[in-house]
Automatic annotation (TrEMBL):
GO molecular function: tRNA (cytidine-3-)-methyltransferase activity
Keyword tRNA processing: yes
GO biological processes: methylation; tRNA processing
Species per Swiss-Prot/TrEMBL record: Takifugu rubripes (Japanese pufferfish)
Keywords: Methyltransferase, S-adenosyl-L-methionine, Transferase, tRNA processing
Lineage: Eukaryota, Metazoa, Chordata, Craniata, Vertebrata
UniProt cross-references to InterPro entries, sorted A to Z: METTL2/6/8-like, SAM-dependent_MTases_sf
Protein name stated in the entry: tRNA N(3)-cytidine methyltransferase
Gene: mettl2a
Amino acid sequence: MLIKLTIFLASSISEDGKRPQFGTRFLTDPRQVFQHNAWDNVEWTEEQEASAKKKVLENCQPLPSEKQEEYENRANEYWNDFYTIHENRFFKDRHWLFTEFPELCPQCSPNNVTHQKVSSTGRCVQDEERAKQGAAVSPINVNFPGATASYRILEVGCGVGNTVFPILKTNNDPELFVYCCDFSSTAVDLVKTNPEYNLGRCFAFVHDLSDVEANYPIPDGTLDVIVLIFVLSALHPIKMQASISRLARLLKPGGVMLLRDYGRYDMAQLRFKKGRCLSDNFYVRGDGTRVYFFTQEELHSMFTEAGLEKVQNLVDRRLQVNRGKQLTMYRVWIQCKYHKPLVPSIPSEHTV
């Protein structure tokens, strides 16, 4: 699937670098703001951004170190409590993923290349040849779940399966295998008890992303796609780089890491009151779970430090509207795609 994946990476953004998937509904007349539930690519005024910065600065006094340690040490407990209370009712299935991230279901994308030769298995001949060559060069231990699959996806921070199950429903590739893990054992148990959970196509396990010494049930260099949807922001900032670097080792050459997470000055950040800040742009919610708000530059630095190359790094500014209450809510999310080079970069002889 490596050739097919590379094609999608190249075609997933428009020539001008703007995201074509969303971004089709623009607010040109402020008087019409309540005509729809959401508006895309909303530009902020200088006054609006200055107001957001001021709001963040007003509430940036960090909690005492002992409280911060408590939230760090009890993070697992807080997430288990979250899923015990909400079970599978809090998040909706993320069907938008296939529009934003066609790598999750290559055969479903309108950008799919139809002129490639197809074998009797229904898969691209070039993909099968590449898979055979890869197996010959880099044999792997076959004693792991999904070892016989040729297209492997891992979702980190899977929750109750709002990403995993739409992938399994939508992507009918017989060579697909999906892994999913979460910090919360309660969440993983909910995934495993879902009637759509199929051990022949999926493997769920408990894993702490921030524990870089903990083993994954997957060998390094075997994943085509890694998905992080609103999960990296839950880690302590000092643990983020090592976590991304560890995940990058799991990717095949040409594999891609997909991320969508909270951006700086998102509505959720501006709503935090005093007494909720842990450190710069890092907060604790009322239920004890934590959240960080990123900039594009921070994420780019982490991914490139992990040896990955940028395919996409954009800010999605959305204006959501509650027409019943006549409320406007400005959301800021960051979406990234970074891939592992087919050939590792060789440092210059002059590099220290």
